Backbone:
């Protein structure tokens, strides 16, 4: 997840302490949406980051199709419930947690209590003055009650926060997400500003809890906004992952070996294969998350699954230990995908 120009770890693994800074940042640290009240140009040319004006309107009931093509009833059915998993705090970086950095069991609960439902109509009124993406996307929001509780008592929070549906989001790794800003001294758990060691003259301005949702899984982070010497920085200081139940759908949404194991799923090492034969390259070993682990010393086999984002869709090819039958629904044996033209990086793996 990209947060305020910072690539932040969502899964509680070792890279959950990244921090970047900006002197003129006007983006929301969880969703990346540009705040239209910050840096708005009075002229016709706009500013470097563009100006996206968002206009909310209340939707009357959960059965009405929202601006993004889904109803609130559908989204609530997708995300509501109790998720079990773990949270890991970072003891490194400019905002270092002073308590235990070991994974701690946690529970996340999302409940709809009749909260407001909103369309957010986004309009880019001033284009960005750069050649990169200039996102300004419609979204659909549903206010829910978000409970975040860790077994050690550090977090025992209950917030009203919007579940955001934004298909093809440039800033969220899934179409559904949630975020909430809070102050560490305003928590119900034992967390406080004194829980952190700050570098130099760094000032902790706020914390932001955010999570991607989908497939019965929630993966997110606690992020810090800090100020120092006229600069504002954002970065992840804790990562968490949780699932409503362990199954192939929810496990497939979890990134990182530690997060996968922490929620009760099975981390499996594999390698993606890029390019077209004979010019193929293999990625370094990475972790894929399944509900059931392959047998010990299972031979490697090529599998494919569809990769899709707002820009493209294609079959990616991955070398994995032979998966238990039936193969999870999102995967298929490479031999069952004759349109895929890929080579094997390993002498003991048959090409497609």
Residues:
């Amino acid at each position: 997840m990209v947060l305020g120009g910072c690539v932040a770890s969502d899964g509680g693994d070792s890279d959950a302490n990244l921090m970047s800074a900006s002197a003129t940042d006007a983006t929301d640290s969880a969703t990346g949406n540009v705040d239209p009240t910050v840096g708005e140009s009075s002229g016709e040319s706009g500013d470097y980051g563009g100006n996206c004006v968002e206009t909310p309107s209340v939707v009357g009931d959960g059965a009405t199709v929202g601006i993004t093509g889904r109803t609130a009833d559908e989204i609530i059915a997708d995300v509501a419930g109790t998720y079990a998993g773990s949270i890991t705090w970072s003891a490194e970086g400019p905002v270092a947690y002073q308590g235990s950095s070991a994974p701690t069991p946690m529970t996340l609960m999302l409940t709809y209590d009749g909260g407001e439902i909103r369309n957010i109509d986004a309009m880019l009124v001033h284009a960005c003055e750069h050649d990169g993406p200039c996102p300004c996307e419609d979204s659909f929001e549903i206010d829910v009650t978000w409970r975040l509780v860790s077994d050690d008592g550090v977090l025992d929070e209950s917030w009203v926060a919007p579940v955001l549906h934004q298909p093809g989001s440039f800033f969220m790794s899934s179409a559904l997400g949630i975020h909430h800003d809070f102050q560490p001294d305003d928590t119900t758990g034992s967390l406080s500003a004194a829980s952190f060691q700050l570098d130099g003259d760094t000032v902790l301005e706020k914390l932001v809890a955010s999570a991607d949702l989908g497939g019965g899984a929630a993966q997110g982070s606690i992020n810090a906004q800090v100020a120092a010497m006229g600069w504002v920085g954002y970065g992840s200081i804790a990562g968490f992952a949780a699932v409503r139940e362990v199954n192939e759908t929810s496990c497939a949404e979890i990134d990182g070996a530690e997060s996968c194991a922490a929620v009760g799923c099975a981390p499996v090492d594999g390698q993606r294969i890029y390019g077209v034969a004979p010019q193929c390259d293999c990625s370094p070993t990475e972790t894929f998350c399944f509900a059931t682990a392959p047998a010990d010393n299972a031979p490697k086999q090529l599998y494919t699954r569809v990769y899709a984002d707002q820009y493209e869709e294609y079959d990616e090819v991955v070398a994995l230990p032979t998966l238990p039958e039936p193969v999870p629904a999102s995967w298929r044996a490479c031999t069952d995908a004759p349109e895929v033209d890929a080579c094997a990086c390993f002498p003991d793996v048959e090409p497609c």
